[in-house]
Structures are given as C-alpha cells and as structure tokens.
C-alpha cells in the first residue's frame, strides 16, 4: 500500500516539476518575436521511381505552335533529399514559389537512370525513344548565392 501511495504522490508532483521551468511571456516580449509562415519540410533518402514523367506545353513556341511533350520513361533516382522552407508570394504581376534549401545536404545523389527519352505530341506518345540516360555517382546541389545567405530557388510562370 505504501508503494502505491508513493507512486500516486510522484504522479501528482510531475505537473508542478514540469511547470517550474516555464514563465509567462509579456505582450512586449511577444511583440518582439519574429516568425515566418510557410512550410518547413525535411525528407532525406527519398527514392524516386516512375514509369513515366511527362512535361508538355499546349501551345508550343514560334514557329512550332502545336502541343509538344517531353516524356521520360523508366526513371529511377535514389537518394533525393528535399528539405527547407517552402513558401508562395508575389507582387502585382508575378506569383513566385520559393524554396529556401538548407546547405547541409545535397539535393540529389546516387545513380540516375532514364530508360526512355521520347518527344511526342501527347503525354502518352509512344514514338521511338531517343535513347536512354544513365548518370553514375550523381551529386547535384544548390550552392550558396554570391554574397552569402541561404540557397534559394524562385519559380514563376512566364507569359
């Protein structure tokens, strides 16, 4: 019985011990806190395997103004590292997707294999392949910008 009493007393004391190191934050102190909205994500050693990766443009470019597609088949890329802060913002004319990458890990590393490279008129084109692509011991990273700071990539649509 004495043992159960000691356990119960210890459990009652835990919240007091945990709260002992905490203190209230004043409105002034809270006003000095700076934060950043966005999504922070860290994925390491993601393996990418895809039967088909296709990128298309429905209106082409002058003088080739019909749809065109670049299709990669049998894509295998081990050890993709995705991390950092992802955010979206813009001004009156352009909206940007921003990726601020941590400098501690490379973006990609490993052996890249693309079994088929196809150029066609749709995402499902089966025109003859231009060949395959293999890159061994690939290390791809985004370096630190000139003048220091964090490595950033901004992506926006063009008209």
The topology string of helices and strands comes to HHEEEEEE
Strand content: over 45%
Spans of at least 5 consecutive residues whose pLDDT stays below 50 are none
Judged by helices, strands and strand pairing, the structural class is alpha+beta
Number of helices: 2
Radius of gyration over all CA atoms, rounded: 26 Å
What best-fitting shape do the alpha-carbon axes yield? extended
Report mean pLDDT, rounded to a whole number.
Answer: 76
**Main pleated-sheet profile:** 6 strands, antiparallel
Distance between the termini: 79 Å
Number of strands: 6
Estimate percent helicity.
10-25%
Mind explaining what this structure looks like?
The protein has two helices and six strands, in the order ααββββββ. With 159 residues, it is of the alpha+beta class. Strands 1, 2, 3, 4, 5 and 6 form a six-stranded antiparallel beta sheet that branches. It is extended, with a radius of gyration of 26 Å.
């Amino acid at each position: 019985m004495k043992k159960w009493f000691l356990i119960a007393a210890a459990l009652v004391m835990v919240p007091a011990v945990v709260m002992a190191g905490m203190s209230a934050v004043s409105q002034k102190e809270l006003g000095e806190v700076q934060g950043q909205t966005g999504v922070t994500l860290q994925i390491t050693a993601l393996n990418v395997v895809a039967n088909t990766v296709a990128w298309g443009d429905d209106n082409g470019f002058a003088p080739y103004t019909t749809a065109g597609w670049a299709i990669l088949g049998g894509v295998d890329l081990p050890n993709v590292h995705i991390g950092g802060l992802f955010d979206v913002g813009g001004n009156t004319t352009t909206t940007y997707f921003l990726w601020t990458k941590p400098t501690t890990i490379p973006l990609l590393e490993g052996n890249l294999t693309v079994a088929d490279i196809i150029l066609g008129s749709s995402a499902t084109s089966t025109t003859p392949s231009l060949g395959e692509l293999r890159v061994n011991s690939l290390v791809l990273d985004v370096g630190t910008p000139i003048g220091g700071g964090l490595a950033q990539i901004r992506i926006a649509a063009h008209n």
